[in-house]
Design a protein that fits this description.
The protein starts with a strand and ends with a strand. It is an all-beta fold. The protein is about 0% helix and about 50% strand. It is globular and about 40 Å long.
């Protein structure tokens, strides 16, 4: 099983980025996908998740600015991030779990990507 994030980079405050998570080795349609981030010196935190039936949840910091989607045919999940702030600077990870019960609990997820770095700075 392999999850690979892409799309990170440097963006100015107020800008947008779209992260992608490419999933292989499992049938993504049967898995919920979560997005997490870890800022320097901080614990990993949940940002968003999308279930098999495409229901979504967002953290308080992400709600209203981020959206999450999935393309099962292409085995891709996406995190669209708008109105980015310096506090959004972190390494962003996607993760997959067969049965999702707790969206923002990292221990719930079985498979993880290696992360992609997002830096929001002027």
């Amino acid at each position: 099983v392999q999850l690979v994030e892409s799309g990170g980079g440097l963006v100015q405050p107020g800008g947008s980025l779209k992260l992608a998570c490419s999933v292989s080795g499992i049938l993504m349609e049967y898995y919920a996908i979560g997005w997490f981030r870890q800022a320097p010196g901080k614990e990993r935190e949940g940002v968003a998740c999308i279930s098999k039936d495409r229901s979504t949840r967002f953290s308080d910091s992400a709600r209203g600015r981020f959206t999450v989607s999935r393309d099962n045919d292409r085995s891709l999940a996406y995190l669209q991030m708008n109105s980015l702030k310096p506090d959004d600077t972190a390494v962003y990870y996607c993760a997959a779990v067969y049965h999702l019960s707790q969206c923002f609990i990292s221990g719930e997820y079985a498979y993880w990507g290696q992360g992609t770095r997002v830096t929001v700075s002027s």
